[in-house]
Amino acid sequence: MDSTVIGIDLGTSTTEAAVYRNGKTEMIPNPEGKIVTPSLVGIDDGGNWVVGEKAKAQLILSPENTAMEVKRKTGTGQKVKLGKAEYTPVELQAKLLNYVRTYASAYLGEDIRRAVISVPAYFNEIQRQETIRAGIAAGFEVERIINEPTAASLTYGIDHMEDESHIMVYDLGGGTFDVTLLEMFSGVVEVKASSGDNQLGGKDFDEKLMEHLYRSFRKKKGINLRGDRFAAVRIKEEAEKCKIALSRQDSYQVLIPAIASKSGKPLEVNETITREMFEEMCRDLLDRTHHPIDVVLQDSGLRMDQIDKIILVGGSSRMPMVSADIESYTGKKPEIVVDPDFAVSEGAAVQAGMISGEIKPEEGLIMTDVNPYTLGIACITDYTDDYMSVIIPRNVTIPTSRTEEYQTVYPGQQTVEIVVYQGESEIASHNHLLGRFDLSGFPRNSKRTEPVDVEFTYDMNGMLKVKGTIRATGKEAAIQINMHSGEETPGIGSEKEKPSGTAWYEVNGAEQYQPIIRMTERLLDRRTDLSPAMRLEISAQLEQLKEAIVDQSFELADAKETLLQKLIEAARSKK
Fold first, then answer.
1. Mind listing the pLDDT tens digit for each residue in 528-569?
2. Hey, which residues are catalytic here?
């Protein structure tokens, strides 16, 4: 068994860590003995870094030296000012993750260096890359970035290995919102589609209350508290308490003494907020959750009546208005079947246990995922030279490989630049630039435009390989983009020697085929009702896939993988 790998839910408001050992997940307490660590980082009066509870304690007295909700700024290029200095989100989240690593090491009695870190399903690759960089800066080897709803489904799935159902995971956290649609069958968790809003979460519900308190105070007292950082911290703290209280009771009295003064007299905030008032304030926020639900249904090709469960995840999903809105919009009552606060960290720990060997391959879940954003290249059309040509659409199951044909712009052109983007805009430059490379070697003095094949191969480990091939000459150029680290490796692929006496899983690059192999082996093991002909065909294709991997004939392996996926689908449809 390898060294211990922990799972971390790096949240907007709070951060939790867990480990899988002795056959179960176990939450890791921080030095204060608490499972939940506030996602705050600051600098105290002595110039020392403070994290978690200590940072939260200094927030009221020193808000200018304390950073909160840094996750919202991940991938935006914005910096956070603490005192006179500015810091990137990567630097601040690295401080938080290092704190987690330190207390996890103390609790587990070993130097923890490996982690699975969760991110919102709708994080783009730039945001994922920055999360990886923060983990590395904190001293971790980041084994996997796992989508938060997928992690939550692992928490549920580890105890429901035999279930066959379609599940919608509704994840409303402190700062982000995701909807993910999954299918579970025979120990397989297959992500069908994901969508979401990275700027929607509990923070926004707090701000609705804060805006109400600001307006009411100005109307009653004639004083504008906006811009007063000390007042803002106290109002936010009380707004959070009000939000939580209204999940249990019909009204709450907000009382903040001595928040300002007038004519030498202290003034207080004193407001009674009812649940009905709060729900009316947040109507537009709830409406924003509807579009992602529609997107995952459309992209997955499923209807709402085909969904067996809607699972609530994320602390903000505890608000009664959320459940009521989901039931009103979908006609299906959502359920709390896992702890909304800890489901993601526990699921990340399950994934960590699968990586470390704590969970045996034959015992664990098989997990597939999708790419949440469209991938393509910039090209020229009759109307624009900045068109986003899609090669891999969003919500395609990975691993996947797709090829599209293009043409040079004019006869005799000697070089083309292939520029890779990720995003949903038809205007290429409005999307996220992932990488670029030149392809040269076209026939000289050609009297016509030349065809070029561009192939995208995206694997389970977040590696995107983009290859351009000139049909006339066979010349190739490629880059490999590690979508989990942001690294870009140029070069032309070369044949490798066949490893002698090697099992398929020992071959470099075999990892991307592991889900389909395990899925197929599990199907053959559990489906005793398969016809002899189908069983023979599936077994033969499985063996040919393994042989192709050992031979490093990855094009053939890709073809076998696609065929096995079709055979598995056919077998499942006949059940």
1. 888 888 888 888 888 888 888 888 888 888 888 888 888 887
2. 9, 71, 148, 171
